[in-house]
């Protein structure tokens, strides 16, 4: 459908009384069988889907506003609005609505709005037949007019009747004429009545009346009426402010008269809402909703008109980035851009996306690199606000831009580094700008809002970029202030800045993995941060402690070994001792950290703390944390001892002599065989080979078993195997001694020495063990003796 007359935007009022954009499409009116009546249908422009299907009810109040808006309520507390591209389309649909309800299309509202109870509704309907008649607009009747208007506010139906009468009779202009007369005559009483009358007209909450009051020729008179508050001893000077003090600056000439008029009107109406009108009471809170809607739609229209003027925005950015632009001019340009972005907050997500794409294509980020580094405080503050708007809506836009800078921009001119530099160099004693900039960096570094589905490498690429090009700039003030054993500077501004940097680094520890780990380990960052535990500012001490706590919470053994090797609990224990048991946040935070180590049973840290700081911590008795930590440590040590003992007992056969003790019958058979064969050889010839053969086979099998056993044991247990293998020296003697009765075994041949040496290398002997073994074996072991004589 190409008919632009019927092109509309559909809005719905949310719980916060803000209009949500439900989409753009084309509206039509036709009979719907399912709803059994003429209905309004809005089909989406993009895909033709049905955005709205609303039956025109005979009793629903439809309002026509600003020639291109139709507003109504669907059920309870669900307001809808159609914003037409052209007035002609709005008129067509309005005529159709009025036709269904049997109303004259010249009216701006089709029904009386009834919101009260059934009883009140019945009472109102009984006396609503005659229209409200206003007294003649004369000075002498002002009190009567004021009382009449005040009495109508309590009934929604009477409010509607009153609003229609005021509009039809042109009563507002008549009242403004009386205002001029009262001012000329200095009639204070009449001016006070006019103040009350116009306040009540605002509370009628009718768009048609607002359009009359906010017209160029009447708005200042309306503001004048609201200057004479009876509760104020002297009249306000709102008109003077709007006409003389509030000056409109055209940083770039605006050629569109409609846009210019809309900007002036919106500023003045906003001023009336925020400053001139009294703060509404709880009961009046929703009585000015139409005024808020009036401002809302005006702002949306302003943003749209500026966006459509490509020449205007191009000229603005050209001057903003021009080196020849003077400081005052650049400040005005940035302030205008900030106001422009502020108005864009009224847009719905789809509109905002288009808005920020337009700004990005025109080069807003390169422009901000210049303005963020400006010396003028206002320029810098406004630039931070603009960047905040962009980052909060779409951080990916900023990330993409910074990644593109890698190849063609110096490090100090990269946007992220400019942001960090401005954070570090903030001259504000309270660091207001630095806090905002830290918030921007936090959003950019948050992996949660990195669009993995759109660009799978965004997280990896941006974090690589940040830790390669920017992290050193961020931690530079931290490293500079902790070069010695004590913090170099302790002024308030410095410690505030270090607190912000530590907060950001703590966020990185929690949400980034190996990037921040590499940085901490390579730069020994935790040690430097713990120097701040000696700061005189407790909040900075807590920031340093929080950073360490984030690291410990990861339960990462790399970090744990780094802490143990560097003895990095020492500064924490020192701070704990210096605190001397005072019941404060520092004391609780340190105790909580050790409580966490105990509860999570981080064995390496538990052992390190007890072994190195046990004497100091044993004296702490007002909490049970350290006693429980010591108990956990003792339990762990007992388990280790039990495991060692169990490991020794479970070694199958290598370290037990019983394996080598042969059955008595087997020994007798071997001895008999040895004696029988002995006679066939010369002296010594048969004895040595036979004995050596048995010994060699036995040693080979034993060494193989030992090798397999050592290979199978894990690294941690292999020392236990070797340490307990001192019995092996006696195992050899046991085997040899059991091979013969009544004498020493023959010495091994040179070929067998190799096997014996290997065996002795695999199983380490310790002094004193052989005596115990000999006692255990009950004399089985025979000391080596000279070669025995040949038996005949």
UniProtKB/TrEMBL annotation:
GO terms for molecular function: protein phosphatase activator activity. InterPro entries: ARM-type_fold, EVH1_PP4R3, P4R3-like_central_dom, PH-like_dom_sf, PP4R3-like. GO terms for cellular component: nucleoplasm; protein phosphatase 4 complex. Coiled coil: none annotated. Keywords: Nucleus. Residues 144-635 form the Serine/threonine-protein phosphatase 4 regulatory subunit 3-like central domain. It is found in: Nucleus. This is Serine/threonine-protein phosphatase 4 regulatory subunit 3. It comes from Cryptotermes secundus.
């Amino acid at each position: 459908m190409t008919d632009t007359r019927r092109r509309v935007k559909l809005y719905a009022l949310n719980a916060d009384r803000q209009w949500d954009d439900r989409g753009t499409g084309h509206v039509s009116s036709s009979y719907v069988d399912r709803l059994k009546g003429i209905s309004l249908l809005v089909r989406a422009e993009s895909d033709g889907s049905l955005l709205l299907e609303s039956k025109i009810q005979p009793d629903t109040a439809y309002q026509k506003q600003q020639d291109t808006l139709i507003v109504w309520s669907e059920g309870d507390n669900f307001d809808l609005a159609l914003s037409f591209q052209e007035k002609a389309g709005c008129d067509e649909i309005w005529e159709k609505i009025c036709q269904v309800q049997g109303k004259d299309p010249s009216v701006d509202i089709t029904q009386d709005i009834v919101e009260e109870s059934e009883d009140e509704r019945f009472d109102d309907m009984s006396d609503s037949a005659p229209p409200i008649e206003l007294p003649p607009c004369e000075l002498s009747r002002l009190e009567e007019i004021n009382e009449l208007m005040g009495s109508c506010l309590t009934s929604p139906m009477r409010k509607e009747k009153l609003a229609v009468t005021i509009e039809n009779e042109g009563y507002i202009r008549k009242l403004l004429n009386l205002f001029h007369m009262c001012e000329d005559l200095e009639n204070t009483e009449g001016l006070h009545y006019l103040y009350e009358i116009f306040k009540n007209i605002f509370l009628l909450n009718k768009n048609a009346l607002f359009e009359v009051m906010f017209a160029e020729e009447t708005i200042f008179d309306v503001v004048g009426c609201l200057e004479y508050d009876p509760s104020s001893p002297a009249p306000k000077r709102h008109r003077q402010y709007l006409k003389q003090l509030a000056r409109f600056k055209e940083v770039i000439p605006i050629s569109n008269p409609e846009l210019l008029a809309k900007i002036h009107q919106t500023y003045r109406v906003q001023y009336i809402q925020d400053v001139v009108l009294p703060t509404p009471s709880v009961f009046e809170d929703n009585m000015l909703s139409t005024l808020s809607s009036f401002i809302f739609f005006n702002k949306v229209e302003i943003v749209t008109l500026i966006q459509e003027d490509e020449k205007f925005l191009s000229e603005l950015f050209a001057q903003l980035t021009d080196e020849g632009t003077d400081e005052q001019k650049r400040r005005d340009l940035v302030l205008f851009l900030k106001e422009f972005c502020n108005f864009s907050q009224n847009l719905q997500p789809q509109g905002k996306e288009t808005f920020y794409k337009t700004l990005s294509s025109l080069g807003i980020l390169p422009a901000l690199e210049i303005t963020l580094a400006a010396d003028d405080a206002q320029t810098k503050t406004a630039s931070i606000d603009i960047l905040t708007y962009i980052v909060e809506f779409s951080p990916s836009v900023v990330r993409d831009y910074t990644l593109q800078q890698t190849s063609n921009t110096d490090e100090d001119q990269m946007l992220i580094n400019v942001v960090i530099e401005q954070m570090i160099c903030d001259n504000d004693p309270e660091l207001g700008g630095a806090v905002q900039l830290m918030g921007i960096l936090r959003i950019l570094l948050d992996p949660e809002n990195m669009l993995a589905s759109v660009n799978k490498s965004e997280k990896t690429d941006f974090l690589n970029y940040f830790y390669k090009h920017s992290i050193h700039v961020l931690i530079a003030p931290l490293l500079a202030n902790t070069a010695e054993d004590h913090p170099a500077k302790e002024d308030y501004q410095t410690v505030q800045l270090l607190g912000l940097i530590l907060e950001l680094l703590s966020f990185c520890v929690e949400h980034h993995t190996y990037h921040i780990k590499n940085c901490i380990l390579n730069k020994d960052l935790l040690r430097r941060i713990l120097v701040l535990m000696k700061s005189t500012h407790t909040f900075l001490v807590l920031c340093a402690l929080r950073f360490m706590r984030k690291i410990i919470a990861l339960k990462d053994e790399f970090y744990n070994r780094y802490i143990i090797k560097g003895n990095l609990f020492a500064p924490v224990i020192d701070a704990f001792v210096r605190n001397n048991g005072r019941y404060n946040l520092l004391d609780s935070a340190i105790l909580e950290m050790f409580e966490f180590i105990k509860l999570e049973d981080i064995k390496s840290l538990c052992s390190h703390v007890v072994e190195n700081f046990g004497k100091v911590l044993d004296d702490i008795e007002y909490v049970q944390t350290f006693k429980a930590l010591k108990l956990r440590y003792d339990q762990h040590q007992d388990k280790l001892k039990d495991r060692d003992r169990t490991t020794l007992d479970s070694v199958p056969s290598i370290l037990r002599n019983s394996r080598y003790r042969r059955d008595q019958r087997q020994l007798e058979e071997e001895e008999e065989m040895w004696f029988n064969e002995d006679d066939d050889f010369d002296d010594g010839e048969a004895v040595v080979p036979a004995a050596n053969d048995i010994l060699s086979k036995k040693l080979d099998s034993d060494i193989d078993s030992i090798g397999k056993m050592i290979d199978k044991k894990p690294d941690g247990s292999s020392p236990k195997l070797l340490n307990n293998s001192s019995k092996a020296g006696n195992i050899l003697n046991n085997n040899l001694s059991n091979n013969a009765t009544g004498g020493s075994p023959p010495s091994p041949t040179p070929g067998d020495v190799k096997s014996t040496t290997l065996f002795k290398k695999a199983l380490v002997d310790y002094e004193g063990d052989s005596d115990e073994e000999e006692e255990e074996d009950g004399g089985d072991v025979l000391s080596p003796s000279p070669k025995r004589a040949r038996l005949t």
